[in-house]
Amino acid sequence: MRSAARLRRVATIAKGELGRTRKQLDRKTLLGLLLFGVLGALLSPFVLGAGFDFDHDIYRAAVTADSPLRPALEADPVFRVFIVDDPAPFVDADEADLGVDRMNAFAKPTDKGKASLVALDDAVKAHTHLIMRSEPDQTAAFPVRITLSYEEQAPGAFGGGTSGALPEPIDPRAGETADEEESRLEGEGGDGTDTPSGDASAPPPSGDIDGGFSYMPQGDEPNTPGTLQPPFPFRSLLLAYAFLLPMNFIVQVYAGAILRERLGRQGEALLASPVTPMEILIGKTLPYLVLMLGISAAIALWIGAGWVSLVAVVPLVLVFLALEFIAAMFARSFRELTFLTVFASVLLTMYAFLPAAFTEVHPVALVSPISLIVLDLRGSEISLIEMLYATVPLTLVAMVLFLLGVALFREEDLFHQKPVLSKAVDAVARQVHGLGSGFWLAALFIPFVLVAELFLVAFLFAWPVQTGVLGTLVAIAFVEELFKGAPSYAAAQRGRVPMKRMLLFGALVGVGFFVAEKAFLFASLTGLFQVPAGAAVFGSAGAGALDAGIPWLVVGVLLLFPLLLHVVTACISAWGARRGRADFVVAFTSAVLLHAAYNLAILKVLGGGGLL
Amino acid sequence: MMARATTSHAQTTPGDPFVVVEGLGKRYGANWAMKELTFDVRPGEIFGIIGPNGAGKSTTIKILAGLIAPTTGTVTVGGLQVEDPVHKMRIGYLPEESPLYEDMTPLSYLRFFAELYEVPRDVADRRIDDSLAALKLDVRDEKKIGDLSKGMRRKVAIARSLINDPDLLIYDEPASGLDPVASAYILDLVQELSRRGKTVVFSAHNLYHVERICDRVLIVRQGSVIAQGTMAEIRASTRSTRYTVTTDVPFMGAEETARGFAMTVTDFAEVHGIEEQVKDKGGRIIDVREEEVSLEEIFLRHAAN
Fold first, then answer.
1. In a domain, B5, yes or no
2. Chain A contacts of B97, Cβ < 8 Å?
3. Of the candidates A353, A244, A247, A243, which has an alpha carbon nearest to the alpha carbon of residue A297?
4. Which of A74, A488, B191, B236 has a CA-to-CA distance to B97 between 20 and 30 Å?
5. Do B150 and B30 share a domain, yes or no?
6. B196 and B281 share one domain
7. Which sign does the torsion angle of CA A44, A47, A51, A52 carry?
């Protein structure tokens, strides 16, 4: 009965919000947006089908009819070819950039002339390659064959590959050249039948949408080394961006609506009504959520993506809305909102697209749900674990953000101008209700910690090993201590607490953080911790020990160390928070340094010293 | 006609105060907006809260409406704590400034809130008709709220505060910024609502309004109670009745007037003192004139203090 009433109230608010938004957008704007969308939808298949081709008719080439280079020039679209009897006068008169007769190729000594000669060289190579490929005797055409195989990077086979302390790669062949593509001499005329899965010589998956960019040789087609490109799922990423593009516009309207109601105080009457802040939040968010999911479903249909892409979009939509909601709750003006929303948008786009560029190359890519979309578009199989790994952390982050934001849904925070930091502290402080909340708050922050750490892993894993690991150790310590210090600082701001009680609160923060962190053994599930940066992050947390086959009892004893660390550093921050802002800064810095030193020591003890 | 007010939800027994505020305090950071505020409001009473800017009137009003949580003290309305979710079903709140959703029409706006209060559509429509008629607002669905005048918007906001047929009306400056005609309408309506059993708590800057319609008044300054009670009680407690004593002989402190010698005092006991003085000199009191001080004067006197 009560739930039905709640649902009715949520529906009323959602209906009201939808009506108001519809009325606030004038018809011309809506028509313009609709036309823009239709135009995009009509043009995109052509663009995607034909690929991007900006290099037409760049150079004018005057060529004699009997020149042996004529077919190469005519086959290359960068050249606009004129058949002449004598090309020299045309080049001299600047009517052609390049002159080619039966014996010579020449150009004016200008930059464009020189570039046309380089382009001619490329055109001839490409044409020669084409001729060779059409030879009936391929063994004669390509006496030595090298089969190139792009494989997902095995745990341990990470960039740099110079350290003797690195774990052995799963595939022994991968050890030959650590950061290069695995290569294997098959000998003359090898047919490649024994190539592993993902072998470049095997036909690409039927749904390989990126095949058109020829980063992999197609089917059994041979390629010369010069034509090989590293794998980069450009087209899949481009298509995945189609999901994010409309979201950017919708969340602006959403954040604007929340802020307008705050600055205009229209929401005061709502607060005085029997509607709870959570009902207001859900009611106001629902129309935008449904709209974004509806558009995403339409885009999925349009680009031929499956249900996996749609599932992957859900956490992105949620976190996008949550970030914008928080921004609208924190902002004091529309100018400040613009800054915060752009910041949130850039942050989310980076988080989504940076790791996704390494899809099917490295497991780290799965920290982003966009990687799921890329895999889906490429027709690759996706396991449940991979799906959870890519979607759960962001979803939890969105939920916690909403929870923190809704804590500010009260007269004192909604309609009064407070600095952003003060509101952030308020949002956390509102969750403090006694000692036990230290435990729960720390646990609540774990998804943020996880996302921040995964982001760091994604950002740092391509760095040189030593710099990456050292940077990660400090950055991770900073992130973890920040989220452990925040509850204590917020609690101290709520009112004067005796030091003993504050230290007890800090200890509970440490325990809560430890327990929740251990609950997130995603890293162990995916083998992510075996990436050097990942090892620095999760290995020190003891998660790696489980994969290493160490007995549970020993693991239990080993876990006491991180527990002790979290409790001690959280207490240091709590001590500082109780004494005041300046002391908190000193205490927090000390906690970060202690944590980083601990991470370093553990890494050395566990045999990862070679990484440094 | 307006629907008859009921107090079916009230959990107080007859004679009990409807609103009980005890030791109320609200702190913002290191500053207390109010401290140790204690008062009560009887059922069907119009209770005015006055005080200079920053005295804590709006904070008190917002705590009563359940918008702000007090730092100390308790507030019960009809036996229910203001934190109780049912409380908001039983009150009608009108903020000092009442920004409305400007792109809605008055009718759609009032129906929107009626749905939130779970008022059935037919009942809501009847209440909307009654309220708009009583407020003499003839705009329903023809114009958007953004196109209405300030007075008309205020009337829509008042109609919203009545949509759930509340037991307690909490009005913050209900006639603020309105022309005298619109103000008079609103004050008449408040009195009418009180006659129909509604309890009204309202704050005002216009002391004439308070004096005109309030049964009892609370004067606050810097978050503390200065005086409270009926106007007569306040005058008595604040020595706000003046006595001008005229005698036929001079006495200490008296000024010579056309009728004799006069002096104004605020305590009736002083009149007896003067009588003793002039008797000793063989004279007598010719006249004692009682003069009531306006609420404004009382307020200004306290504000100056």
1. no
2. 265
3. A243
4. B191
5. yes
6. no
7. negative
Please indicate, yes or no, whether residues B59 and B201 belong to a single structural domain of this protein.
Answer: yes
Residue B101 resides in a domain: yes
- The Cα–Cα gap between A401 and A322 comes to 6
Alpha-carbon distance A441 to A459, whole Å?
27
Determine the residue among A278, A412, A425, A496 to mutate to test chain B binding: the one whose Cβ has the most chain B Cβ atoms within 10 Å.
A412
**Which residues of A are less than 8 Å from B91 in CB distance?**
272
Residue whose pair of structure tokens reads 């037919």 in the numeric block: B122
Q: Using a CB–CB cutoff of 8 Å, tell me whether B103 touches chain A.
A: yes
**What's the total number of domains in chain B?**
2
Reduce the secondary structure of A175-210 to three states and give it as a string: HCCCCCCEEEECCCCCCCCCCCCCECCCCCCCCCCC
Alpha helices in A164-306 (DSSP H): 234-264, 267-272, 277-303
Same domain membership, residue B174 and residue B50: yes
User: Is there a domain that residue B194 lies in?
Assistant: yes
Looking at the fold, whether B183 and B292 belong to one and the same domain comes out as no
Q: What ipTM does this complex have?
A: 0.78
The helix (H) or strand (E) run that includes residue A309 is helix A307-330
Q: Which of B201, B229, B257 is the last residue of a domain?
A: B229
Closest CB to B160: pick one of A8, A19, A269: A269
End-to-end CA distance of chain A: 62
Q: Is B141 on the interface with A (CB under 8 A)?
A: no
Check if the beta carbon of residue A390 is closer than 8 Å to that of residue A312: yes
Do B242 and B225 share a domain, yes or no?
no
At residue A489's C-alpha, the angle toward residues A485 and A490, to 5°, is: 120
User: Of B99, B113, B160, which has the smallest distance from its Cβ to A264's Cβ?
Assistant: B99
Residues of chain B contacting residue A20, judged by C-beta atoms under 8 Å apart:
101, 103-104
Per-residue pLDDT of chain B (305 residues; tens, 9 = 90+): 343 333 444 455 656 899 999 999 998 877 888 888 999 999 999 999 988 778 888 899 999 999 998 989 999 998 889 888 889 999 999 998 878 998 899 999 999 999 999 999 999 999 999 988 888 888 777 889 999 988 889 899 999 999 999 999 999 888 877 778 878 888 888 999 999 889 999 888 777 788 888 999 998 888 888 888 887 777 777 666 778 899 999 998 899 888 889 998 877 788 888 988 888 888 888 888 877 777 777 777 666 65
Out of A13, A264, A272, name the one closest to residue B65 (CB): A272
| B14 belongs to a structural domain | no
CATH for B252: 3.30.1490
> Which structural domain range is residue B289 located in?
237-304
Is the confidence at residue A541, as pLDDT, over 70? no
CB contact under 8 A, B103 and A273: no
